[in-house]
Design goal:
Blueprint (H helix, E strand, L loop, with lengths): L1 E6 L9 H13 L3 E6 L5 H12 L3 E6 L1 H10 L7 E5 L5 H5 L6 H10 L2 E10 L3 E3 L2 E5 H11 L5 H12 L5 E7 L2 E7 L1 E5 L21 E6 L4 H10 L11 E6 L1 E14 L2 E22 L9
Parallel strand pairs: 1-2, 1-3, 3-4
Antiparallel strand pairs: 5-6, 5-14, 7-10, 7-13, 8-9, 8-13, 10-11, 11-12, 13-14
Helix pairs in contact: 2-3, 6-7
Length: about 300
């Protein structure tokens, strides 16, 4: 077996070296040929594709958070090579959704041992950008934008900007076309979901499945003290999820039109301002190394 590790050294402010040291020892013990590719922020996708072509791995291991998972998935679109996830970012929302073991070395052993290869969907946005977890427009996109510009990381920093944005909530007009229907709403946030939960564990919807060939659009109309309390509780018990504060629609393609350009974030990365957003599903785009305790595999 040949393993290619794709590592984002700075994701989540988490030191990856202790894991990599243990991973190298494990590979050496069992005679597993391996190569480590570390992102630098410069031509990473081009360089990674070169490594894939020359090293020819049997499996690729994404080491980092949701952003690293997305980067690795995009890089493998032209290759039929299965990918596994090691959750070592500040937010590991997608890994949690996919029942990846939270202990990195146990997650690595799953990647090496499992013969369960699932088909994970990806979203294509405006024919140029990809999303594998959750994107949105509105309050959370503004929070992510402020968070990215702050030198500090972690939930405390996120909470600081969350409280700031709550004071500036202003509904905006949105026209959604999905499944042949046109819907007009005033929203505080529009979620684009290949999955259900944010990295915080709070569900934006409770029906999503990242392996079913469709995605969810969530229109949030109301955010108040009661809905925030329920959102916090829904992290621990999904029965608290408040479906009365918005609409959830699903399909395999959609267009979202705003009265003026709005800020879009995808998987924790701010993409830019758009007046129109087009979304379509790339069904089974990622060959995911998983296991049968992942509830989405056989659903």
């Amino acid at each position: 077996m040949k393993l290619l590790f794709v590592v984002n050294p700075i994701s989540g402010g988490v030191d990856k070296e202790p894991f990599l040291k243990k991973a190298k020892t494990l590979c050496k013990k069992y005679g597993i040929d391996h190569h480590i590719f570390k992102t630098t922020g410069k031509d990473d996708q081009i360089e990674l594709k070169k490594v894939v072509q020359t090293f020819k791995p049997d499996r690729v291991v994404s080491v980092g958070g949701d952003g690293t998972t997305l980067f690795t998935s995009i890089s493998l679109l032209d290759f039929c090579i299965p990918m596994g996830i090691i959750p070592l970012g500040s937010a590991n929302g997608m890994a949690t959704e996919l029942s990846v073991n939270p202990e990195p070395m146990k997650a690595l052993k799953d990647v090496i041992l499992s013969n369960v290869i699932g088909s994970l969907d990806m979203l294509l946005v405006n024919d140029a950008h990809y999303c594998i977890h959750i994107g949105d427009i509105g309050i959370n996109a503004q929070i992510v934008d402020s968070y990215e510009k702050d030198k500090n990381r972690g939930m405390a920093t996120y909470a600081k900007y969350f409280l700031q944005e709550l004071k500036n909530l202003t509904p905006f007009g949105v026209t959604l076309n999905i499944n042949g229907k046109e819907i007009r709403e005033k929203a505080l946030m529009v979620g684009i979901c290949n999955s259900r939960k944010y990295g915080t564990g709070v569900p934006l919807n409770v029906t999503g499945n990242p392996m079913d060939g469709i995605f969810e659009i969530v229109i949030v109309n109301k955010i108040d003290a009661n809905s925030l309390i329920k959102a916090g509780l829904s992290k621990f018990d999904e029965s608290f999820h408040d479906s009365q504060n918005g609409k959830v629609l699903n399909g395999d393609s959609a267009s979202i039109l705003f009265e003026e350009p709005r800020l879009l974030q995808l998987d924790g990365e701010v993409i830019g301002h758009f007046k129109e957003i087009k979304v379509k599903i790339l069904k089974g785009a990622v060959k995911l190394i998983t296991h049968n305790e992942n509830t989405y595999v056989n659903s």
